[in-house]
Amino acid sequence: MYGYQIAKLIGAGEPDVPIPKPGALYPVLRSLEKSGLLQSRVEPSTSGPPRRYYSITDAGRRTLGNWIDIWNHTKNFVDGLLQGEPND
Predict the structure, then answer these.
(1) Which residue has the higher pLDDT, 23 or 71?
(2) Are residue 1 and residue 30 in the same domain, yes or no?
(3) What's the confidence (pLDDT) of residue 16?
(4) Residues 5, 44 share a domain
């Protein structure tokens, strides 16, 4: 996907979620690419300037899996606290 597609997808389905501003999104995409988590290619566009398309790398997939595990652990911990369950 190219940057604007990603921005629209982030806000899709949620009327109160604004589309991220390019000034916030593109530096994150560049940082992820510099870290080896994304790769990009530039392709011509029939309706404007060339577009940079991003795709996740194998390292990005592994990192995403780790982030998901951390998120699930954090969510379970917080859910347990909210339900009054002890967390060891």
Answers:
(1) 71
(2) yes
(3) 79
(4) yes
8 and 45 part of one domain: yes
- Any idea what DSSP says for residue 35? T
- On whether both 37 and 12 belong to a single domain, the answer is yes
Which structural domain, as residue segments, surrounds residue 68? 59-88
E strand spans, the chain: 38-45, 48-56
What is the rounded CA–CA span in Å between residue 62 and residue 56?
10
Segment 36-56 shows an average pLDDT of 95
> How many distinct helices (H) and strands (E) make up the chain?
3, 2
3 Cβ contact list (under 8 Å, min separation 6): 22, 25, 26, 29, 51, 52, 54
Task: Pick the closest to residue 10 from 35, 28, 30, 37 (CA basis).
Answer: 28
Lowest mean pLDDT among 32-36, 76-80, 81-85: 81-85
Tally of structural domains, the chain: 2
